[in-house]
Amino acid sequence: MGLRLKFNLVLLVVFVLGLAVTAYISWGLLQRDARQEVVRTADLMMEAALAIRAYTVEQVRPQLDLQLMRVFLPQSVPAYAATQTLKQIHKKYPDYSYKEATLNPTNPLNRATDWETDLVNEFKNRSAVTELIGERDTPTGRALYIARPITVSNPSCLPCHTTPEAAPPTMIRIYGPANGFGWKLHDIIGAQVVSVPMAVPVRNAERAFYTFMGSLAAVFALVFVVLNVMLSRMIVQPISRMAMAAEQISTGNFENPEFAERGRDEIAMLGRAFNRMRRSLQKALEMIDG
Prior knowledge:
Blueprint: H1 3-60, H2 65-68, H3 78-92, E1 97-102, H4 114-125, E2 132-138, E3 141-151, H5 169-175, E4 188-197, H6 199-249, H7 266-289
Antiparallel strand pairs: 1-4, 2-3, 3-4
Helix pairs in contact: 1-3, 1-6, 6-7
């Protein structure tokens, strides 16, 4: 096995190991960053929904108190305001969604689906949990969700949700007497759920990964070629010439010129030592012949 082959095998093993470690670390980092980006987007939507709810309670509803005595306005309900506002985002970005999933909602459109019911029950069974983050498959691809519990914390909500008899008649005319009643103070009755697609950030992370690994492989290929050229010119070729010269000298042929002694590296030192050995051997043979 030649020196060049040994060198290339060692270099190839080092590259493969380095590439594997780099790929493992960079893939994990890029995927984590992509997920964090999705979480930030989902959290921003959740905060927007909370801001809309607060604005409705603090700014909108007080302006409608007199009118609400005569007619029920869904627009004055914080959950309705947040849901309808974020539906405008859903129209432009269908994969982004917000829902106030409720087990026993006044508005049937807010009724929790099976997986949303599991989230609500998780909050009910683990009262210390204030937020759940997870992933699920959707018809359009993988999506990340953030869910927070909806708790009856304001006693002013109860008149509309204790019994149909206590609820505003105008509300009963809109939604009927069958749903949205029996709520109690401090009960967890649902969950705010934001769902954000993961396809774009994950695709960007994969593109960045393949670009980085391709660039790394290209750099290695360039380094591999440069090192082989340097190895050939600075080490392999001089040693090969010395080996051929030594072979000829061993048969008594001293016609080849001496090696150039320029430089201070190990090859130059080897060349000077070889030349001294050659002269000594030549003089010794001349003395024997004489």
